[in-house]
Design goal:
- The structure is a single chain.
- This protein has a domain of 112 residues.
- The chain is globular, with a radius of gyration of 20 Å.
- By secondary structure, it is α+β, with helices and mostly antiparallel strands.
- It has eight helices and 25 strands.
- The strands form eight sheets. Strands 1, 3, 7, 8, 9, 10, 14, 15 and 17 form a nine-stranded mixed beta sheet that branches. A four-stranded mixed beta sheet has the order 20-21-22-24, covered by helices on one side. Strands 2-19 form a two-stranded antiparallel sheet.
Length: 419
């Protein structure tokens, strides 16, 4: 795909209806260290390992960004964790609203498999720190300008291989780089600059590859995986805060996935750093070509609850759960769609292709984590993530994408009113 670059326009009168108001964009960001306390705190790692944290390769962070325009405000929170319980995420969102007045809050995880799972006292600490990050970001908003663009880079493969007889073979590691598709190589980049001096305030990155290089079933070694390595590189090169949002990568692995099964820690983290650096190179290339404009922008946010059936009864005999699909639109050009689970790549690609926005960030593992969300076709084929590893009814992914598209088309003004 040819790289496409876009700039947000200041011509609000051309894109806004009488009910949508533009205003000076203000943005605030914050980062708080949420790394487990070495030698003190206990977490659960892959394979059910529960132990006091002994080894930390790199730190974990809670990052928050707040957008305001005088009429509307939105907070996006990214936690460098494999996942976070729904009850914790809901407390973060509700408390951020209570303490800042921001009603529109998305809380996502990067899904790094090097974080371990936080529970009890550790989870309580992270809840407080995530709230603090959002409050700090809200208190630091300043006039900003924004632009966005797309690059392309291949850092992963589809781990589901459909054989001639129709059966599914899982390709857990692909160091030989065997061609396996579909994959989404698009690198989404949003550049936000201070209006005062054009310095970088934040860089947002959307990319769809599972952060599983640091996955370790034998011992706990804390790492933010390749998204953390990428963010550190971008922050060193461009300044400001870099925030990663995982795209639709439910069936996409990096080529060096799960290296701890056959490699030393030094080799594993060399691969983590290499993948992060290669992605950062593409992000920087896109960012340097983006022309951010000082713009009065509209901010539109909608949250849609979906009652989705469970494949098996859930806690307390529940037969369905509420899945929230959020759409956030900046100046009717740049869209953020949050989806609750590990969404298969074809669902995300289809959403971006059909989105009425010029560029769409697909943010997965957001607000709730309903495990894997496969395509209907994948559910018919079977395999890990398509049958095993799923909790929602077959077809739930298509329902989410449909709801997101309806919301975006309403927001962008394409749906005709009733006569």
């Amino acid at each position: 795909m040819k790289k496409q670059l876009f700039t947000l326009l200041a011509l609000a009168s051309l894109v806004l209806t009488s009910t949508i108001h533009a205003g000076q964009l203000e943005v605030g960001v914050a980062t708080i260290d949420i790394t487990p306390k070495q030698g003190v705190e206990t977490i659960t790692g892959m394979g059910g390992i529960t132990a006091v944290v002994d080894k930390i390769h790199d730190k974990l962070s809670a990052k928050a960004i707040v957008f305001k325009n005088g009429e509307q405000s939105v907070a996006l929170i990214s936690l460098e964790l494999i996942g976070f319980g729904a009850e914790y995420v809901e407390r973060i969102r509700s408390e951020v609203t209570k303490q800042t007045g921001i009603e529109n809050v998305i809380c996502a995880v990067t899904h790094t498999h090097g974080s371990g799972s936080a529970r009890d006292e550790v989870a309580e600490r992270i809840v407080g720190q995530a709230i603090e990050a959002a409050i700090t970001a809200n208190a630091s908003v300043e006039p900003a300008k924004i632009g966005y663009g797309q690059g392309e880079w291949n850092g992963g493969y589809n781990r589901r291989v459909i054989k001639e007889d129709g059966s599914v073979e899982m390709l857990w590691n692909n160091s030989d780089r065997i061609d396996s598709t579909p994959v989404d190589d698009e690198v989404g980049v949003v550049l936000i600059q201070r209006a005062s001096d054009n310095s970088t305030l934040a860089t947002l990155v959307n990319y769809a590859v599972h952060p599983v290089i640091s996955m370790n079933f034998e011992e706990l070694i804390i790492s933010a995986d390749y998204p953390g390595a990428m963010a550190r590189k971008i922050e060193a090169q461009l300044g400001g805060t870099c925030i990663y949002f995982m795209g639709a990568s439910g069936d996409i692995n990096p080529y060096d996935a799960g290296m701890f099964r056959f490699a030393t820690p030094e080799q594993v983290f060399a691969s983590v750093d290499q993948l992060g650096e290669e992605l950062a190179t593409e992000v920087q290339k896109v960012a340097t070509e983006i022309s951010a404009s000082l713009a009065d922008v509209s901010l539109e946010f909608d949250a849609y609850p979906l009652n989705l059936a469970l494949r098996e009864n859930g806690p307390h005999g529940a037969k369905d759960q509420v899945a929230e699909v959020d759409t956030f639109l900046i100046d009717r050009q740049l869209a953020f769609v949050s989806l609750p689970g590990e969404i298969f790549v074809e669902l995300g690609m289809g959403l971006k292709e059909r989105s009425p926005a010029e560029m769409t960030f697909v943010i997965t593992c957001a607000n709730r984590h309903f495990r894997y969300v496969p395509t209907l076709q994948a559910a018919c084929e079977g395999g890990y993530g398509a049958t095993s590893g799923t909790v929602l009814e077959v077809g739930a992914g298509e329902l989410m994408i449909h709801k997101a598209l309806v919301s975006l088309k309403h927001q962008i003004g394409q749906v005709k009113p009733l006569e």
